Amino acid sequence: MVEMLTKLAPAKINLFLRVLGKRTDGYHDIVSLMQQITLYDELTFLSRPKGIVLQCPNSNLPLSADNLIFRAADAVFSYTGCSSGVEIILTKNIPVAAGLGGGSSDAAATLLALNEMCRFGLRKRELMNIGSKLGADVPFFLFGSSAFASGIGEKLKAWKNPLKLNIVLINPSFPLSTKLVYESLNLRLTKKRINYSIPRFSELGDIIREMHNDLETASLSMHPELTEIKQLLLRHGALSAMMSGSGPTVFGIFTDENSAKKAAGDLNKTSPQARVYFAQSL
Ligand code: ATP
Fold first, then answer.
1. For the chain, what is the domain count?
2. Is residue 14 domain-shared with residue 143, that is, in the same domain?
3. Domain with 145 in it
4. Given the CA of residue 66, which atom of ligand 1 is nearest to it?
5. Nearest alpha-carbon partner for 69 in 141, 1, 147
6. Is position 137 annotated as part of the catalytic site?
7. Higher pLDDT, residue 147 or 174
8. What three-state secondary structure class fits 11?
9. How does pLDDT run across 194-220, given as a tens digit for each residue?
10. Is there a smaller number of Cβ atoms within 10 Å at the N or the C end of the chain?
11. Whether 149 and 197 share a structural domain
């Protein structure tokens, strides 16, 4: 048993996201290119004889079964029949309900950490199985730094992004519920099913050309100021700007690190009400 462990849980962006249709169980079939980025939550795990204790000094997130970290710890202890406990301290840096997958990434980091700490010896596939019951994006964070996702986001195919992307993210500091965005999209969905396969990306221009998010129209109509944020990124030199997941975080892709860092610095000064981040693809 390892006494203490620290893990970084990265955020993700969706380079493209297409909604193929609504399933009879209410979920939506999607295809998406998902990419982890260098914006992280930090989780520290301390072993204790029993019970799960969660602390998150810098946010108002729930600290019991409503938190995905708590549920992930509970799930892996039940799966292994282990009776020991853990104290987890979360430093939340990824904006919440922001389209960046923070909760799912925290859950994945928890599964990985406890597997290591308690020497459960569970394989990646097993962890992904436990994770899939916690949230559709959890398996992705266990799978690898980028992937082509289909189904409700749980079917993953290897896709190694050949490029280091330089990204500026703007989070407008209000949360957006994924459920509400999908509900609003339902009104617009046709019954026609669309097929889609993995596009080939070998240079930056390919990514810029393929960037697309079907959820954008729904989120943008609920919050028209998101259109202005996209324009802001483009005016600061982004080659393309788009909302991530169900939003409201908008990201722009830049030609190089210097131009992205400069834009992030300038945007930070001019947009005090928003949170601005520079990040790179992992
Ligand atoms: P999703 O598309 O899965 O909703 P998201 O990136 O838009 O992802 P998250 O930051 O993962 O949103 O949070 C979604 C909801 O999950 C929030 O309403 C939040 O209260 C809840 N939640 C539970 N545990 C966590 C956690 N550890 N971090 C962030 N949110 C959490």
1. 2
2. yes
3. 4-158
4. 23
5. 141
6. yes
7. 147
8. strand
9. 666 777 778 899 999 989 999 998 888
10. N
11. no
